[in-house]
Design brief:
- The complex is a heterodimer of chains A (188) and B (168).
- Chain A contains 7 helices and 6 strands.
- In chain A, helix 1 packs across helix 2, helix 1 packs parallel to helix 7 and helix 5 runs parallel beside helix 6.
- Chain A is globular, with a radius of gyration of 15 Å.
- The C terminus of chain A is likely disordered.
- With 168 residues, chain B is α/β, with parallel strands linked by helices.
- The longest helix of chain B is centred in the N-terminal third of the chain and has 19 residues.
- Chain B is globular, with a radius of gyration of 15 Å.
- Classes of the chains: A alpha/beta (188), B alpha/beta (168).
- Chains A and B meet through helix 3 and helix 5 of A and helix 3 and helix 5 of B.
Chain lengths: 188, 168
């Protein structure tokens, strides 16, 4: 499984859920696959995808998906603590863990940390099929913070360059804002 | 005793006005300089207490993106660690939320940068409109101004409050 495959699976499984993508390459690849009104791409604030997702889930009371990277989770372990203490928060926190593939050596036990922080369930998916199965199940039944680590073992084509994301275009009409539900959903 | 009561009253008054203006939820870290306001808000409507100030900004940004009208309680010493989230999550998206900033912490080291000055510079540089609560101004009127910026003009705003207003 690589980044592109994992992101395509997430985008396919989240037609109606808000999805918060961490900044950098993940956001650029995701936006290149399908740019939806339900997507929000961080353009800085490394580590705060989880915090932003917590806020969206608090306000909407609906399943919210956060797509993080290994480094961005480590940059903000406090985000795990906050999500973990909000036991009725419908948050699916996905980590695309490229650390081993990127050759950065032994990796921290993110699932152990999430469990210790209070996440109700944690999973590790090593194959795309397993990831898709877990993702669909958790998105369909999410009523509490869950953590889904996806191990990436294959490389990707070069990520798109920063396409000059215009900030106002990145403001999304999530539930509760004028313009929801969106009338434009592009196919993944 | 008189000062103690006055400080508590000031925190209670600001608490009442913020709630009446429709701000919710309130997100904050634990901070000595904000404890009176924090406690007053927590007693009435609850405060989501988080481990880090930048997390509070991130959560508030998410609430706002989804249509809420949140407020973040920050100290001037704490806001310097929030430059990145304010610069990337709040200012460029014009995310409607309120930053309640307590001003007046002493420099971390003697002769060091003044946190109040740093906070004011940061807010101004990032284009966040700010309203100060002055000793002679009515709290309700000042909160009304930030309410207008955030709820009607859908822009971020900062309410600057001298910490000696409620630090006992």
């Amino acid at each position: 499984m690589n980044t592109d495959g994992a992101l395509r699976a997430i985008i396919t499984a989240t037609r109606h859920q808000p999805v918060i993508f961490t900044s950098g390459e993940l956001a650029r690849v995701a936006r290149d696959i399908a740019d939806r009104p339900t997507h929000f791409y961080l353009t800085g604030s490394t580590g705060l995808a989880s915090s932003t997702g917590i806020g969206v889930a608090l306000q909407t009371h609906g399943t919210t998906v956060v797509v993080d990277g290994y480094g961005s989770v480590l940059a903000n372990l406090a985000g795990l603590v906050t999500a973990g203490m909000l036991t009725d928060l419908p948050l699916v926190h996905i980590v695309l863990d490229e650390a081993r593939h990127a050759g950065t050596g032994d990796t921290a036990d993110l699932c152990g940390m999430a469990l210790a922080a209070g996440y109700a369930r944690v999973h590790t998916a090593d194959t795309l099929e397993e990831f898709v199965r877990l993702l669909r199940r958790e998105i369909a039944s999410c009523t509490t913070p869950v953590f889904l680590r996806c191990t990436l073992r294959e490389g990707d084509a070069p990520a798109p360059k920063n396409a000059g994301l215009a900030y106002p275009d990145n403001t999304i009409p999530f539930p509760g804002r004028p313009g929801w539900p969106p009338d434009r959903v592009t196919a993944a | 005793m008189t000062n103690f009561v006055q400080h508590i009253d000031a925190a209670e008054e600001l608490c009442d006005e913020l709630i009446a203006a429709g701000f919710t939820p309130f997100v904050s870290t634990r901070s000595d300089t904000l404890s009176a306001l924090h406690e007053a808000l927590d007693d009435r409507v609850g405060v989501l207490t988080v481990p880090r100030d930048d997390n509070a900004i991130g959560i508030a940004a998410g609430v706002s993106l989804a249509g809420g009208c949140p407020a973040v309680l920050l100290s001037d010493a704490g806001i310097s660690g929030c430059a990145d989230p304010i610069a990337s999550l709040v200012a460029p998206h014009r995310t409607p939320l309120l930053l309640v900033i307590s001003l007046g912490a002493p420099p971390a080291i003697e002769g060091g940068p003044d946190p109040r000055r740093l906070a004011e510079l940061l807010i101004a540089e990032l284009g966040i409109q700010s309203v100060a609560i002055e000793p002679t101004a009515r709290t309700a009127a000042r909160v009304g101004l930030v309410r207008e910026i955030v709820r009607e003009h859908l822009r971020p705003a900062a309410l600057l409050v001298p910490s000696d207003r409620w630090t006992v």
